[in-house]
Amino acid sequence: EVQLVESGGDLVQPGGSLRLSCVASGFTFSDFAMHWVRQAPGKGLEYVSGISTKGDTTHHVNSVKGRFTISRDNFKDTLYLQMGSLRPEDTALYYCARESHCRGTSCYLFDLWGQGTLVTVSS
Amino acid sequence: DVVMTQSPLSLPVTLGQPASISCRSSQSLVHSDRNTYLNWFQQRPGQSPRRLIYRVSNRDSGVPDRFSGSGSGSDFTLKISRVEAEDVGVYYCMQGTHWPRTFGQGTKVEIK
Asked: Are strands B102-103 and B50-54 parallel, antiparallel or unpaired?
């Protein structure tokens, strides 16, 4: 089955760290750029970070730059988000999503999402 | 970063009536490859987002044909021809032309 499964979410104190994982199955993980998107309780979707197929290019939104690092292991078909200096405003459900080419009727631009993993930052 | 602005943010609709959501981007979404990477997503309560429309107007497999997307450049629209009860949820536009990818604020569709 083609799927993404996130894990690693937890309750953590402000200033703490956490590493999220997203395991891919059913498709060739190394052919896809990957992304993290978060959703605070009752709020909309916020793009967080993205990484190229080989992991040599990454993007982070300004609010997480210097605190979060996206990475991947193509041998383990796994995407990571290392989160540090966590703040209460980082509390959210974190989703991973994939991206590949988008031509003709074949378009893999955020076509597959995981179920999310919940990060709660609170003392 | 490209700002995506949706309107309205709340949309009460009578069953069987049409609904329309607007999405405007702060920059043109026409890519250098001449494609326009504008997606629409539906998020039902308690579920992950589900892509409905890609590249402005292409419906994903399994998406009812009452959903349609249109637009160009920086101005886009999602239309539901006749709203059904299962369409309740929040709808988001997202641009995939520029880095970082960005989402609209979401439009909550509810039944009157």
From this structure: unpaired
